[in-house]
Amino acid sequence: QACFCLLLCVPWGSSCPPSCQCTERAGAKAVLCSSRHLEEIPEDIPKDAVFLKLDANSITKIPSNAFRHLSHLEELDLSRNAIEKIDGAAFKGVAAGLRTLDLSSNRIRSIPKEALLALNAKLRLANNPWHCECALQEVLWEAQLDPDSVQDITCHTAPREEYVGKPLLQVLDAGVNFCSVRQRTTDVAMFIAMFGWFAMVIVYVICYVRHNREDTCKHVEYLKSLPSTQGRAE
C-alpha cells in the first residue's frame, strides 16, 4: 500500500537527475542541484520543472538551448559557479516564462546582449569581473535588473583606468557613454580606411601617368632616331 501511494505521488514521464533532488513546492516541481560539483548543466532535468537551482557548482559555460525543453521554468539560479561564457541563445525557450535569473558571483566578463534582452526575468548580475563596454551598458539600460544588486555590478576592466573598481551605474550616472565611444572609434577606423584607399588610388594614378609619360618620351626619342624619309630617298 505504501508503494502504491508512492507511485501516485511521482509524476508519470518525469525523472530526476541522479545528482539532484526533486521536490514539490506549492504544487510546482523544484529541482535542487546545489553544491553537487557539477561541471555542466544536466541534460535530464524534468520538463515540468518550475524552480531550478544549479548554484555553488563548477559550471563554466551556458551553451545555446541549454534549457529549451523547460517551458515551465520560472526561477533559475546559476550563482556561485565558474561561468565565463554564455551563448547568445543560452536561454532560448524559457525567455517568456522566466521570472528570476541569478548569474551573480561567477566569472562573466561580457555577455551577448541578445542572451538577456529577450528575457522578462529579474536579473542578478552582481559580483562578476565585468568589462564595462557598450553591450553591458545596453543590458543595464534595457533589462530588468534586481535593484538590490545593481550597485554590485562593478567595472573590473574598462577603456579608461579611472572607471576600474567603480559601480557601472555610478560611471553611467557621471555621463559616460560606452556606446558613443565605440561609435567614435568605429568612425575613426572607417575614416582611416577610406583615406588609405583614397591615397592608394592617387598613388596609382600618379604612377600610371608617369609610366605612360616615360613610355611616350621613349617612343618619341625612338621615332627621332629613325632615318627620315627624305634621307632614304636621297
Automatic annotation (TrEMBL):
GO terms for cellular component: plasma membrane. Gene3D superfamilies: Ribonuclease Inhibitor. Keywords: Leucine-rich repeat, Membrane, Repeat, Signal, Transmembrane, Transmembrane helix. This is Leucine-rich repeat-containing protein 3. PANTHER family: ANTIGEN BSP, PUTATIVE-RELATED, LEUCINE-RICH REPEAT-CONTAINING PROTEIN 3. The gene is Lrrc3. SUPFAM superfamilies: L domain-like. The keyword Membrane applies. Its main location: membrane. Belongs to the LRRC3 family. It comes from Cochlearius cochlearius (Boat-billed heron). It holds the Pfam family LRR_1. It comes from the Eukaryota. The keyword Cell inner membrane does not apply. It is a single-pass membrane protein. Residues 1-15 form the signal peptide. Residues 15-51 form the LRRNT domain. The chain crosses the membrane at residues 188-209. It is found in: Membrane.
